Every structure is written in C-alpha cells, then in structure tokens.
C-alpha cells in the first residue's frame, strides 16, 4: 500500500505592511540614488498616507525609526549579517541586504517580538523580491535572532585592548577612519576628557535621535509666542541659544503658526549659536553691510537677516548652486529689513574687496558633525573627501577675509569636528597674513560650557546637545 504524498501548504499571499515598505523604499533611494533619508522619507510618507487610508502617525513613526535606526547601525548589522551567512556581503543583491538589515534592526534594535519581526520581514521580502530570496532572508534572520545585540557585538568585534578603534567602530557602528578622526579632534579640544568613556559618549550621541529645535527669528517671532502656541509639555527651553525652543518627541513643527508663516523655523541650536556669535562681536566703525557667503539652504542666513534688520543693516546671501539659492530666498521671505539673495561663487566674488562689515562662511565639508541627522553620511563619506574639500575651504576663507573691511569680522564655520576642516584650515590661511587677528569666540557664546582653551570653539553632541559645529572668529586689522 503506497504512502499518500504529503499535502502542500496552501499558498499564502504576503501581507503588505505599509510602514516596512516605506522603509525599504527609503533605503533603496539612499543606496541607488545617493539620496538623503531626511529628504526622501517625507515624500514617501505622504504617498503612503494617500495610498493606505489606515496609515497613521504611529505607522509614520515606525517607518522613520526603521529607516534611521537601520542606517545608523548599518556597520554593526553588516558585521552580524556577514557572520550568519557564507555569502560575501559584496556579492549579495543590495535589495536583499536592505531587507535583511531592516529585519536585523527589528530583532536587535526594537522591542518587536521575534516571531513578528521575522514573519513581517519575510513577507516584505516576498513582496519586493521573490520567494527564493525570501527563504534566504528567513534563514539569516532566524540565525540573527539567536542572540541579542550585545552578544553579537562581543562576538563580531575585537576587544578594546586588542584594537580600540575597531572595537568602538563596530560597537557604535562608525567607520574606523571616522572614529580615529573624532578621537584626534576630541583630544585637541577636550584633552582631559578624551578617553574611552568620552569616545563612547560621543559615538553614542551620534546614534541618538536628534531633537527638533526651533528658532524664533528676532523681530518676527518670539520664544514666548512659540511657547504659547503649544501645550506646556510640548516644548522645552533651548539650552544655550536665546532664540531656541526644543520640541518634544513626536511634535510637528508644521502645526505652529509662526513656522508656517516663516517667522520661525527648524534649526539646530549649534547653527543658531554660530550666527548669533558673529552678530555679537563688536566691529569698529560702521555696521551696515553683512554677507553670508555660503548661504544655502538658508537657516543661518534667515537668522542673520533678522538680526541685521534689527540694527538697520542689510544682508547679502550668496549661494553658488541655483536650487539652493532658491531655498535661501524662500527662507528669507518676509524678513522685515532689506536683504539680497544672489547666485555667486564665493571664491570668485561678485562684490568689491573690503565691502562688508560682517561675513559668515559656513563652508562645504564632510558633514561629520551632523551624523545624528544624516546617518548615511558616515558610510558615504571617505577620507579622500576631507582632502577634496580642503582647497575650497581655504579659498572661501581667503575670499571672506578679503571681502571684509578693516575693523570688520569674519566667522569661519563648518559642521565637522575634523581638524583638517577646522583649525588647520584657519591656521593655513592666516599663515603669512599680518592683517588678521583671532577673536576669542568663547566670549560670544555666553553660558556654553566645555569650549576648550579658545580662541576658536568646537561644539559636541555629547557635551552640548548640538551638532558638532566649529567656529573661528577673525578680525581684519
């Protein structure tokens, strides 16, 4: 008597989870088009809200956590995934690796139950890939689920004593060269606070979700007005900037009338401090013409324009890229005083020498100071990028100094703590010039602690809760 063949399981159509599909589409845009998650994700969320009637704020928050959490921890997850398969990551189909990374984050970085994380991710794989890759995804995720994150990191990373930089890089998911550059800079700026615990604090702060900080633009909105527009528990005072308020997690800036009317905006507190410090330095003689020489996308320019208007001064905002110049013009709309937005190359000035009283150059850089906001940058940037920016940074600073009249001041700023983009640039440009002197910037960041020995300053996410902004103030003699 023959044995009956086992019954096949009925085919189950994979369930489409909109939040996970949004997260996958965002990761593909980051990988394929070098997009930034903070730019591509909002449009994907709006599309999901239109396509799925039940897609609500919780789904949007979950999709956002999946995207940013996966991008932040990609280095650590790659090491863990590599230990769970014989297939080299470099030969793995990128969409497959993205799906596995999303599953790894759910298993190791969230409280989602293991069965739900694996099942939903396999369903996603069956939807966006095929059944064959989905089986591979299922097998890898089940191996990952055998240990928690700490156990995996201890397994795939060398010990601290064996290789400190690699240990920290894997445990906190930063490329080794970034760990090395941050450690060098921290040792210069905070020599008494640059050991293992300090580096762990800094790298952990890079992986924290950044707060949304608002700026009340002087003469157009006040901190009190912003505070009164939302419940008491929705806002907290800024730490250092007199124009800042911090929005509680989940708060939506678009619900605030002053933000909708462009009288206030979203701006990191470190960025606010840079603009406010430049505006606070005394100048000798007139104080009527200000320049933002690298104005895009317009946050610092909007604050400077508002401060200039309160003193009867005019701001010229220059940006070399036309699409970014349009963003600057939008940010400055409604400014109460005169201003001008121009498309120009700061290294080939469209203005006469010595024609401005105050000049800000927030130069293009590696962006290592904003890894909280753009976690994909840590994997996209290479050491060669730092060298690539060097000639432009020096050229912009020289041009800014030449554009400033004797007695005026220049602010050199960059959203990077890398020494080769900060103090080294200023020292190189000033070498051989006897017409420029340092101004101690610490005096114009009142109340901000841990600023080092001066005269320039470096902000840190783990010490100040800001992006890692650098500022040097220079006076033409």
From TrEMBL:
Active-site positions on this chain: 415
UniProt-listed GO biological process terms: methylation
Gene Ontology molecular functions: methyltransferase activity
Keywords: Methyltransferase, RNA-binding, S-adenosyl-L-methionine, Transferase
InterPro entries found in the cross-reference section: MeTrfase_RsmB-F_NOP2_cat, MeTrfase_RsmB-F_NOP2_dom, NusB-like_sf, NusB_RsmB_TIM44, RCMT, RsmB/NOL1/NOP2-like_CS, SAM-dependent_MTases_sf
Top-level taxonomic group: Bacteria
Residues annotated for S-adenosyl-L-methionine binding in this entry: 294-300, 319, 345, 362
Residue intervals of the SAM-dependent MTase RsmB/NOP-type domain: 188-477
EC number: 2.1.1.-
Transmembrane segments: none
PANTHER family (alphabetical): NOP2 YEAST -RELATED NOL1/NOP2/FMU SUN DOMAIN-CONTAINING, RIBOSOMAL RNA SMALL SUBUNIT METHYLTRANSFERASE B-RELATED
Family to which this protein belongs: Belongs to the class I-like SAM-binding methyltransferase superfamily. RsmB/NOP family.
Protein name per Swiss-Prot or TrEMBL: RsmB/NOP family class I SAM-dependent RNA methyltransferase
